[in-house]
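Reviewers asked in the last cycle whether our approach scales beyond single polypeptides. To address this, we selected a multi-component target totalling 902 residues and predicted its structure end to end. The input consisted of the following lines:
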Amino acid sequence: MTPAAHMEPSVPSAVPGKGALALLRILVVAGEGGSAGSLLQNLRQWADDGRLEIDTAPDLPRAVRQLAGQRWDLVLAVLGEHPDDDLSWWVDTLRGATGSPRLIAVAQAPSMGLVLRAEKSGVLDVLSLPLRRDELVRALERLRSVASETAVPLPFVEPHAVGPYALVGQSPAMLDVYKLLARVAGSAATVLVQGESGTGKEVVARAIHINGPHTAGAFVAVNCAAIPENLLESELFGHEKGAFTGAVTRKIGRFEQAGGGTLFLDEIADMSLALQAKILRAVQEREIERVGGGETIPIDVRLIAATNRDLKDAIKQGRFREDLYYRLAVVTIRLPTLVERGDDLVLLTAYFVRQFAERYGKKTRAISDRALELLRAHAWVGNVRELRNVIERAVIVATDETLRAEHLPDELRGEETTLADRPQGGLLTLAEAEARHIAKVLAHTNGQIGAAAEILRIHRNTLTRKMKEYGL
Amino acid sequence: MTGPPPVRVEKALALMPELEALAPLRALLVSIARPDEATLWSSSGPYLTLGKRGVHPDELRRRMPQAFHRITEHLQALFKAYVEALECQQRADAPGVVAALLRAGRLEEDVGREPQARTWYEVALRVAEALQDRRPEVEVLRALGYIGLALGEYAAGARQFQRSLALAEAEFDQAGATAASEGLGDVALAQGQWGGAQAWYSRGLRLAEAAGDGPRAGRLERQLGVLARKQRDLGAAGDYLRRARERFEAAGLADEMASVLNEQGLLDAQLGRHTAASAAYREALAWAQRAPRDGRLELSIRLNLAELDLEAGRLLEAEAELRRAEQVAIGGHLIRRLAQIYTLMGRLRGAQGDETGFVFFEQAIELAKAVEHSVATEAQVYHAYGVFRSRLGQQDEARAYLERARELFDSLGEAVERDRVEAELRALSA
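The resulting structure, written as structure tokens, was:
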């Protein structure tokens, strides 16, 4: 079941567009009540080698007008008294601007927190006032170097079609999945698919359905975590008219809809214990009752369940029924993360680029070296789903044959930190390293100071003080 | 991540009784609730609503002083306004008493407590009615008119504006008469009475121009633009909005600029000029950033931008904008607007043929009933829910929801929306 991949011929060898541009178009925007005059003067005096075209706007609203009318490569904006707020507005504004111009933010004594937030938002650089020549020149050099990207041909990928979905990948981890999938599909056994978010659990479930004995029947998917708990039971088992407020008509539940086919229960760990008991009964007895109905209805469905949680751990904590676990996990398929799949990332990228280019009528068929580097470097929390999302957005905004770094979301572009440009050869000061690490841990704990302090093994007051110190 | 998992908002709110004293705690809980990163990328991530966000009791405890601070600040301002009213009373300065009581009412309105504001205004009215100078009474009646409008009590609102106008005219209070005319136009517009709205706004505009009141004239021109757009006289709408924009830009009124550009975006969208509409909304957002912080205005612009993307089939952009709007609403204590956001999210899922999108309508209905207490919003949600079910081929459920929407619009005396629902029901039967 290995999808084939080969190189597609005749892709452009150089990226047209920005790389060929000799002229950089820069919009300089003064802060609230300020003037763009001195910035303009600095820019002209220090950096204009005849390849800059510079214009000014007095404030954000007027800048928006100018950005809507023409394509700009860079906005040099002075942040006001509330630099964090101003930065968010600028990032939001540039998100919708023609040609995805980059932002250099200029602020009075920018905090470490502001710099980190700017990096995360894809801001090219944060410069402090008064401007220094070397910093400004280096930021512009970065913009020019960013503009020179080389196109990399994308391999042609022949996926295993699973309806509108596809299984793509040749990594050893995925080959193991294909083998297990082939063995289990032919039987009617209940399957538990485990894997992190976005690893393709539903695609695998569909593949099992299509290649299994229930393929003539429907494939019905229910996301147990998406549906409010008070509605999930009637969604699964159906209800009779008037069974509860809002039961305006009789409803056939998903178990019945999947009759003769496959019922896919996604995110099963999010179900309440009471409902787990009802699922157990349905699995054991092969019959259900609609909510508000007394009739017992026999069911003939293949059940596939999926979760991104550790069910054994949930059993230990009393949040998941052990008997149900063993009923569901007759066969368990564990899906690898995107990181574990190595070069599958390139195949998946190629597949998605082709899929979305067709969908949106685009000519995109190559990717730049820099864009690919950014994709490889990203920590894919959302795995293949996140990659698919990123590529879809990129294809939508791409205007020519090559998908470039500028088409990628701010979060990915922000990962090209300014480290390489540092005079010390990319080395951080102790404070910078500490601030970055604290920010990383806080992101991990969703901003929970107590949990972050626990991980960092410092008192929460110390952490709060450091956060204040670094402006995090 | 270490430590116990967060408690879901739906469960947290279920533990909190519906007591007014707990409203600030409820608002705080909602504002600090967030999805964890793993949930965002899980298959239920696209269906994430307020109820599925998580909250840590520890964080709630830690943030409680902020809530207390806000409550104290509000109470201090209210008490101060009352003491000022007493001082004015002591000095026999009755107009001063009215002004102080009005100030207190406005403070209540600013935090979304319209019924409480009305109580302050009613006290102010009693004082104002005893005055020889009727201008304070004109002002109080106008404030009461806007409360009626905000609470969907259109007839009561119209009565207050009428009284305000009659008094203003008797007192030769041109500014008062202009403002009352604007209020009457707003009530008529809200009820879909286009002719009445046209007459009141035009009258107000004539008065404002005669008095050289540029900002007021701009507001009335903007409203005439809104009205012309609703009547599909798009050329006239464009002219009115352009004139309003020129007035506001000359006066440097950032909030009014944001508001008129938001309306310009709606007009451009109706004209099918999606790029122009998008540019207008983006500029509106930029002006909103310069204006005194008003989350409601920002939210309104973002919702229009999302709807534009939705209509144009740019579903990814629509979803991103809706998520930003959701964040503005949750972070900015504007959870009343969440019902509208989730209705649009449901419509978005409907456009994708995604049945699970029903979860957004269910959440929106719950919010409209329990948080917003707005029959109009509930009716709008049922209308959209009916259309969603109809598109999925679930005709019986679609009919039930549309009939519920019709019933609710009937109870409000809302004719325009009711007719739209009726048309959907006819299409369903055809």
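The first helix of chain A runs from residue 37 to 47. We regard this as preliminary and will revisit it once experimental data from Aim 1 are available.
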